[in-house]
Amino acid sequence: MKNIINKWYKNHALIYKILLFIGTTFLIVYLFPKSGKFKYNFDKNKPWQSENLYAPFDFAIQKSPEELEKEKSAIVENSAVYFDLIEEVKDFVYEDYNKKFNATFDDSLGRKKTELYRIGKLVLDEIYKNGVLEEDYNYPNDKNVILLNGQNQIASTTYSELSKIDAFRKLLEKQLEDKNDSNFSAVFVSLFFDLIEPNLKVNKSITQNALQEELDKISGTRGNIERETLIISKGELVEGHKYDVLKSLESEYESQVWNSSNYTWVVISYSILVALTLLMLLLFLRKYRIDVFLDNTKVTFIFFNILLMVLLTTLIVNYNAKYVYVVPLAVLPLVLKAFFDARLGLFSHVLTVLLLGFIVPNSYEYMFLQIIAGIVTILTVSELYKRANLFISVGQITLIYIITYFAFFVIHEGSIIDLTFEPFGMFILCGLATLFVQPLIYIYEKLFGLVSDVSLLELSDTNAKLLKEMSNKAPGTFHHSLNVANLAEASANEIGANAMLVRVGALYHDIGKMKNPTYFTENQSTGINPHDELSAQESATIIFSHVLDGIEIAKKNNLPDRVIDFIRTHHGTSLVYYFYMKEKEMDDATDAADFRYPGPKPFSKETAILMMCDSVEAASKSLKNPSSTKINDFVENIINKQMEDGQFLNANITFKEIESIKKILKNKLANIFHLRIEYPE
């Protein structure tokens, strides 16, 4: 059991990476669309670029939205309107007519009264032939109308055949005029105004149900394509019927929700592709960025950012795919470049875009746009801590988006007539969202404990609290640190190392000397040396302690681990030579190991640079009458001894880079000592 626990602990970093790899793969596959994806890209009125396409299964040809809308409009136009006919109203009106007519017209009119009665009766018969409307519904005159009595259909006519409530006036006046009885017109009109009652009322419920029933009968398809039927040949134009068939096939693929029979296979296939993509990232880290690979926090950070971009894109696509370009994907290479380097940022960005190709529409166009934008991001964004640089770079990225999209649009459409400004607005929004990278970097620093150039710039300010304290307590050490920082920064720039990081490391590498400043020669302004009262072993112990004291002070002041690494390694396992020789004079059996720093040795280019610059700058104070030859021999001697002592064995620094650093140090020291050209004697 103990052996199992030991093995588990020994391999816990690898086990964590495996679990992270599996978990990220699962989450990305979970976010992927649960439907089929058509594997061909095509555009209307453009040649078919792929091989001959045969129908993979039977499917129906779907009608276009325009066709369906046309059919719906035709049905709505030709649909019938149902009216309830209330027969009792007509009977009541006729009965009321008899009473009111006799009360209005006197019997003294004789036969004229009978003739007038017949005229009124004819008018009533005419307007109540199909019924009188309650109101004018403004239907077309040829609108089909069905009359109902309860639930029974009793007649079918057109809207023009129905009478409006004031239609009697014209009929009545015409009848009276034909009989030369126009002088009775006013009396009759007044009588009919009180008499006429509507007996037709539209039945909205039945009308709507009947219309919906007809609309439901509309078929979304027209015809079928049988399996193995040739749909389109290579080079053939995608137009007309063939375009409709291809759109139908594409829609059929995308509407196929994973069912129980193929779900497992589709998930396995997606998992394989996602796992391969993430595996490429891990292999890249293992081969080219081993320091990142060995740090589980950094690996988690990279995987988290990739997953975040997939999540954001999925949410936008599910909401509305046309807004997909609002997602600020350029943030990914920006963030990774800020914390790591450009190559890792671009590699991760390309892999993320490949994953998003499974989600987005027009995947080729999307991938081309995003990869180009990612490359521009890496090439243009430098010194992210300078706000102006970020704004300029985001403007360039946005411009590239707009130009590339415009080119794709012209290729697809063949003209700019239908070009709209909506996509360009989305690219501008994307650019504005990319500016959020600054606060995002700050959040990531707090969450993952990483260090960006922005934080390094803040730490390099000599007015920072800790550096201010060192300048007061140990002014000689502070001055030494500034000189080392300048030398280290120049050396780092020469070999392509992180100049900002090594400068900050140099500024803080000796902060431990603040605890006992007078025990270090650069702070001994009075000429009194406390070491005169101590043994060589005690003096060496105090000298060693400035490393551990520096680490303690750095942690109390929340300095990043990357900066603390410089404090820990700037002496490596080197020998405190002065006190060792002093002790050896007294005891020849003195063990050199007792006078060596505890280490560790430098394990990066930056920490190796600091060791060289620190040793050279400190020792240069002892140079008497410096000349170019003396400085050359001096630098060569110090750095060669460090190499012979194996101090750079763990640092990924080459002999060529060390020689470049030597050259820089020689030039800088020559400038410091204001050397003039040596003339021959």
UniProtKB/TrEMBL annotation:
Transmembrane segments: 12-32, 263-285, 297-317, 323-339, 344-360, 366-385, 390-412, 424-444
Presence of the UniProt keyword Membrane in the record: yes
UniProt keywords, alphabetically: Membrane, Transmembrane, Transmembrane helix
InterPro entries found in the cross-reference section: HD/PDEase_dom, HD_domain, HDIG_dom, Metal-dep_PHydrolase_7TM_extra, Metal-dep_PHydrolase_7TM_intra, PgpH_phosphodiesterase
SMART domains, alphabetized: HDc
Pfam family, one: HD
Record-annotated HD domain positions: 477-595
NCBIfam families: HDIG (TIGR00277)
Name by which UniProt lists this protein: HDIG domain-containing protein
Organism: Gelidibacter salicanalis
